[in-house]
Structures are given as structure tokens and as C-alpha cells.
Request: fold
Amino acid sequence: MILPPATLGLLGGGQLGRYFIMAARELGYRVMVLDPDRHSPAGRIADEHLATAYDDQHALDHMARSCAAVTTEFESVPSAALTYLAGFVPVRPGAEAVAICQNRCMEKDFLKRHGLPHAPYADIRSEDDVGNAPADLFPGILKLASLGYDGKGQARVRDRDDALAAWRLFKGEACVLERTMALDGELSVVLARDESGKVQCFPASENSHRHGILDISIAPAQAFFGLLDSAEQLACDIAANMAYIGTLSVEFFVVQGQLYVNEIAPRPHNSGHYTLDACVTNQFEQQVRALCGLPLGDARNHSAAVMVNLLGELWTPGGDHDIREPDWRTLLSMPGLKLHLYGKHRPRPGRKMGHFTVIGEDSAAVHETAMAARAAIGIGNE
Reply:
């Protein structure tokens, strides 16, 4: 075990890293962050912030000398940096698992090789690939293999001409073409797995999106009750096949009563934020525990929860020095509502600035309060 007051290394400085630091601090650890943004939410509260590129050799050497173990808060860090650090200290999750999750082509191939259910797809790396794509993939969605998230780097395509035009707009970068599927809904499972293979699954959440960005998560999921055990088992199978250590999230499409793996994230997840307020142990503490070789915590929920994202358009821009905050009084006056703001430097439309979670014993009452709060703060349904 790696015990406090050891220093833990973290690649990435976003809100997921901020909560990792908060969990680590509560357990008595120090945290060193490597992130190029001097205003990053995690960097601002870290014990030490290396504000430089992820592949900066001096920074990596300093982290290797100073940290007892290293993790990441998002999947787009260079896997080569993780591989290098792994030569000196434990790195969890490992570079191979992160590499699979940061590239849609590799992720789809992983799912196919292990017999895990996924949407029909084709890799697109050339104009010929568009021409040779199976006809039943249209209409479809063309997605960049790397760096696309929250609806970015995606284009809906009706036919081959649309797909070719979209691929050219993506400047010929590698893509995945997926068949459009009529969704019954979406689920996600967040779990933690330790080095001995023991797993703790948080209750699955039922998710809805707005403009391609997660809007609402309901946990435990109220819909698709008969699929929840299967979703947990599939998520566990994915973690085992990756020899994964850490917190992992798996997003599922539900189509005609069947589960399809949509995406795998080698980290805590937006849909798991409800665990901060509704579970015995939250997803970030589990990340710390798995990294340090501590026994995993109890993942049971003690409350029903609904989480709502707060995006940058809720802040009224009045110039660089006059950003007007939403009326937090409205939210903070509601019983059972927990407000979380990420301390980001500047709001912009679509940027995740915070979230709130409503908890309580009665799931229907919790949902009603959350939807009332969502409307009161000015979030529309378009």
C-alpha cells in the first residue's frame, strides 16, 4: 500500500482532477498536477502544479522523482508520458488501457475482439474507406477517432456523399462511421477495480443529453431495470479484459431492449458525479484507493439522486471583467440540493462549469425537485 502523506501525481487539471485532489487530501495525501493551463481547476488547488506540456521531459522526470504513484483525469494525455512514468512508479490505469480508450478505432476493435456488443461500424482512414463502407451504416454518424467529446468532432451523415464531405471537413483524420441507432435510452456504469481484480460497481445511472452534452443523470436508474445487472457485468468484463486498475466508466446505448457499449472512459465520469453526495464512497475516493493499493470502499448508494449539469451559457457575459453569475440563491434554498462549482477561469457556451445533485429517500420527489431547480436556473428543454 502507498500510505499518506505520500505525493500522488495527476496528469490533467480539469474538474475531475479537482475532485481527485479533494478526495486525496481528505485521506492525507499530497498531489502534484501536470497540466499546461495555469488556471486549471485542479492545478489551482494542487500542492504543486507543473504548468507545462504533458510530454515535457523535465516535468515528467520531476514527477517520477517526487510521486509515489501516478494517475490521469482524462484520456487524451499522451500514452507515451504514462509509459515513461511507469518505468519509475506505479501508473494506474496503465498506458495500454488509456490508449484503447483515447482512440475510437482501437476502442471498437477491442470491443469486437472480446465479443462485447457495439454498434455496427467501419474505420474510415481514406476516401476509399468511405466508398467501401457497408450500405447498412447509412444513415450514420462520422466520429473523429481522437479528441472528440461532448458531441464535438461528430457529423450526422445520410449517405456516402455526406460522409465524404464530413471526412474532408475533418481534414482526413482517422474516423469511425457508426450506424445511427434508434435509442430507447442511455445508461452508464462507473466501477472501481483494484490490482487483485476485486470490483465495486456504483448503481447504474440513466442519462439524457442536450446538444450532445450530458444534461441529467438519474441514479439508481429508474428505466431499463431488467438490464442493470447485465450492464454491470459487461462493465466488469471490460475492466477484466483490460486488466484495469482504477475508476472506469462505461456508457451504453439501449436499443430495442438490448445493450450496446457506446464509449469507455478510463477515469471517473460526469454521470458518476452523483456519487459525491449519494454513495458511501464516491468515484474519486475509489480512484485514490485503487491507485494506492488501499481496499476499495463501499459503493452502495444511501440516497436516490438526480444530477444536472451547469453549462457556461447560464453565466451572462458582460465583458472579460463582468461575468454575471446565475442566481445561486434559488438553488441553495432548495432542500436536498447540493451545488458544485468547478472554479473554472472563464465560462463559455457548452463548457461544464458545475453541477447540482438533488438527493433524498423518494426517487419521484427527488426527480421533481431536480427538474424544478433546473427550470428555475434557466435551463431549457430545446
Summary: The first strand starts at residue 7 and ends at 11. The chain has a mean pLDDT of 95. The chain has twelve helices and 17 strands.
